[in-house]
Design brief:
The chain has 377 residues and is of the alpha+beta class. It is built from twelve helices and 17 strands. The strands form three sheets. Strands 9, 10, 11, 12, 13, 14, 15, 16 and 17 form a nine-stranded antiparallel beta sheet that branches. It has a four-stranded parallel beta sheet with strand order 3-2-1-4, sandwiched between helices. The protein has a four-stranded antiparallel beta sheet with strand order 5-8-6-7, sandwiched between helices.
Length: 377
Amino acid sequence: MILPGATLGILGGGQLGQMFTLAARRMGYGVWVLDPDPNCPAAVVADRHLCAAYEDAVALQEMTVSCAAVTTEFENVPLNSLERIAQVIPMRPGARAVAIAQDRAQEKAFFRDLDLAIAPFALLRSTADLAGAAATVPFPAILKTARFGYDGKGQVEVASAAELPAAWAALGEAEAVLEGRIALAQEISVILARAADGMMVFYPVAENVHHRGILDLSIVPAGTAESLQDQARRSAARIAGALDYVGVLAVEFFVDRSGQLLVNEMAPRPHNSGHFTIDACVHSQFDQQVRAICGLPLGDTRLISPVVMMNLLGDLWESGAPDWDALLRHPQLKLYLYGKNEARPRRKMGHVNALAPDTDRAIAVLETLRRDWHWPG
């Protein structure tokens, strides 16, 4: 076990790196952050900020000498950097899990090989693949870049086969996945933590509401049939076991209108839909990340209160800072601002957790806040 007093490293200094750092420091660990952005949110709370590229050999060497273990806050870290660290100290999660999550085509194939239900898909590498993809995937569909897409970026809706060539051209003819659009009833996510010995714990399933491709609300407990929640947990456990995963893993699912559960994607790290755990569970997803990478016993994931998490996007700053008084007058709301120095449309600037006796009342408070703020559509 890696005990308090040791120093941990994290690749990535965004809001997830910031929240990991705060959790680790509260538990008595030092934290070094590697991120090329001099103004990254984690820099102001870490013991040291290595402001360098993720593949910088000197920075990686410093991290492996000074840290007892390293984790990551996002999946687009260069794989050779992960492998270099893993040769010297524990790198959790490992490079294989991150490599699969980096590439939608690999990810879809991985899920399929585990006999997990997924949306129909086809891979586009060249113009020669267009006809076959159009014949394989039902329309309407969504064309997604295989790499570097998130929060609705790198995606184009495709209504028919005739639109596919133009859609692919709009993505720069980069390698892409054409995926059949699902008749959605719900979107849910499972956050789990897995230890090196295979022990797993699960957080309550979150029901997620997206707006324009970005997570808007996470509602816990989810209004999803218990049988589907059990199936989602089993599927997430199968994924974690197949990867011999160590750390916090998020798996997102679709529930279609026929009641079928489909795996959408995974994130090898804490997840936006798990921010409710900071206030509503005994141990947060960031506590678990610390515990898992340090080889400590995993913490209690019990839900203490119904909760709804709401993202705060840069659109709210369009006419200046939001009216914080309108938020802070509600005693059941807990505000988290990430300290980003520039508010841009669709950029995640913070979140709010609403805790209440039930989720309907939590949503009602958030809807009141939206009205007070004249929430941008």
